[in-house]
Amino acid sequence: MAKVRFDGVRKVYDNGQVAVHGASFEIADGELMVLVGPSGCGKSTLLRMVAGLEEISAGTLSIGDRVVNDVAPKDRDIAMVFQNYALYPHMTVAENLAFGLKLRGHEKAEVQRRVQGAAEALGLTSMLDTLPRAMSGGQRQRVALGRALVREPEVFLLDEPLSNLDAKLRHSVRTEIAQLHRKLGTTMIYVTHDQVEAMTLGQRIVVLSEGVIQQIDTPMALYDRP
Ligand code: ADP
Ligand code: ADP
């Protein structure tokens, strides 16, 4: 069964800009799908529509067996990781991870279980009492990943999560994201403008240009027929 399904999805912004021209494709349950293309091709718009942060102008978008066109972001079973890891500066790692869950009224034991689990999955266990300012960029981005992880969503949305990191860190965080995907088996949609990142990370890749899907294929197939 498809986990995320676009059926003739179109996005026209208020100023008349057509960002996505009738996209139809499916992302399988557990798949890591990368959306790639140059700046302005519509990647973020597609992702933000899955998150519910942009209205859909036409077509239908489904998550699981539910059409989500009119479902509010908080009622979608997704979590998004942004390129600017906005951590709360005055809170420790543990508090940053726990904050959203507490707001949502999860019980203390459940919050602790999820925070411990995310910290272990991301190698942050020894940093739970650390403040963000005492951490490296890569560690902070891991906390940002952790804040999405504790929500235990059905679908992870990652919008250029490596773009604020230097080349070396980019490589290690990219490897961690791949490992995380293998460990969790959760559906992931990953947006990047970097072709190398797309080819190394994606199980399949959607190639976009000016709001139109050019190709959808595995890295191997795209490599053979660029
Ligand atoms: P990408 O993520 O590939 O860089 P975007 O999805 O951000 O592309 O943008 C796709 C197109 O839609 C671009 O032409 C961009 O300028 C335009 N766009 C994005 N956001 C808005 C907006 N809020 N209002 C009007 N046009 C927008
Ligand atoms: P926090 O911002 O600390 O995560 P909440 O979990 O209460 O706090 O989230 C507030 C709102 O933002 C909710 O509507 C929630 O659905 C949404 N939200 C929070 N984190 C994410 C995320 N990583 N991805 C998508 N939506 C999120």
UniProtKB/TrEMBL annotation:
The keyword Transport applies. It comes from Stenotrophomonas humi. One of its GO terms (cellular component) is ATP-binding cassette (ABC) transporter complex, substrate-binding subunit-containing. Keywords: ATP-binding, Nucleotide-binding, Transport. It comes from the Bacteria. GO terms for biological process: carbohydrate transport. This is Glycerol-3-phosphate transporter ATP-binding subunit. GO terms for molecular function: ABC-type transporter activity; ATP binding; ATP hydrolysis activity. The gene is ugpC. Residues 4-226 form the ABC transporter domain.
